[in-house]
Amino acid sequence: MSLEDFFQCFQISCQGATSITTFAVFLCDKIEPALRRAVYEGTAKDIAEDMRGRFPDFQGNRANLEVCILRYLAEQENFEYFKWYLRSPKQFCESYIETRVRNYCLDGSRMLWMFLDSCLDHLYRNILSAVSSSTRAVKDRKDRKDKVSLWLDEFCRQLTEVLSLPRSDLKGIEHQEVTDIEFLSSAMAEALDDLRERLMKELASSDFSSFSRQPHTILAEHFSGCWAQCPFCGAVCTNTMQNHDGDHQVVFHRPQALMGAMWPGTDQLVIDICSSLVTTKLKFTLDNTKLIPYKRYREAGHPYSTWNILPDPSMQAYWKWFVSHFRTQLEALYNGKFQGKGEIPEAWGSFTKQEVLSDLDKYSPCPQKRRNKRCSKIPTAFYDFLHKIKLR
Ligand SMILES: [Zn+2]
Ligand SMILES: [Zn+2]
Ligand SMILES: [Zn+2]
């Protein structure tokens, strides 16, 4: 017990019957930090849950989110975003989620305040109902003189799921003699009302810096899993478990030029995908010295040995469009050329963005029918919204 608490408890004992109000104020001072913490924790969860229900990006699994991110990237057509996504997919994904949360909560509509207010409101109601049910449980106990102590037992028990308010912190006031337990109840209601007013004013000016656990962190946790990238093309392992057993695997490998791969001894970028190269007699360079056949890529050691690259010639139209659309930027970035073995097929340049995006839907793990239905429910507003988002 702090000296200040001790003094207050002493005061409460000395004042006798008139001290019930002081008692209520003391108890509310104890409730305040716990309530504040509960409001922020609850709000963070509420926001994450609300967004998972409301935004198609967050309604499915990570594979679905990835398709949404690819769609966003194509719509933005900003090479810097692509570069960031290809190199640090996890970081990009987290930042994407954070941006969406910020846009949703901190734009002109005061969403954050609405979430905080409604969370405070339901916690306040819980505390209020704990006050009345504790009073009901104790007031007729004529057999006991330590009614206040009983009342506090009941009050803390009722709130265990709601707030962290240890009964032991309230030892100092438990010996208070209160005959009129109903008066205690109304004094508490009044003190709680003041506390609520005070917190509401405080919350009105708060932003995400007040949260100990950010809403976007909670939302991002839902999309965790393995983030290993294919050592050739950078595609992200699709396993939903972090540190999973067995090899890393992806459904679609990408043209290796995305990561800057070049044919041994040349500056010609590799436009082929890993899953077709593993069926050929072709080789790749390891550490600029050793030549290793794609067929026996595991011999290149870690991280190659931890990947299971199944033969599959199918390449998503998306990456054909991307390579052809950003060829100049890719050549400059990696100091390579789309020439010779790296010559981009003419057909790659004929895809329109719209074709590429519908192709993405076809491959998407979230079935096209479902996606279309969902998208028609949230018509153009969602796409306008997407366009408005600017990542950092
Ligand atoms: Zn809540
Ligand atoms: Zn690959
Ligand atoms: Zn993996």
**In the residues, how many domains can be counted?**
2
Considering DSSP H and I runs of 4 or more, what fraction of the residues is helical? Answer: 55-70%
End-to-end CA span: 47 Å
Percent strand equals under 5%
Mean pLDDT over the full residue set: 88
What small molecules does this complex bind? zinc ion
Individual helix count: 16
Shape: elongated
Helix and strand pattern: HHHHHHHHHHHEEHHHHH
Q: Which spans of ≥5 residues are poorly predicted at pLDDT below 50? A: 366-392
What is the structural class? mainly alpha
Identify the strand order in the major beta sheet.
Answer: 1-2
Total strands: the figure is 2
Give Rg in angstroms: 30 Å
Biggest sheet details:
2 strands, antiparallel
Report on the architecture of this protein:
With 392 residues, the protein is mainly alpha-helical. It has two domains: 1-224, no CATH class; 225-351, no CATH class. Helix content is 55%, strand content 2%. The protein has 16 helices and two strands. The chain has helices spanning 3-15, 20-54, 56-59, 62-76, 79-87, 89-106, 111-138, 147-159, 181-204, 215-221, 274-277, 317-325, 327-334, 353-363, 368-377, 380-388; strands spanning 283-286, 290-293. Strands 1-2 form a two-stranded antiparallel sheet. A hairpin with a 3-residue loop joins β1 and β2. The longest helix is centred in the first third of the chain and has 35 residues, at 20-54. It is elongated. The two termini are 47 Å apart. 31% of the residues are buried. Mean pLDDT is 88; it is low at 366-392.
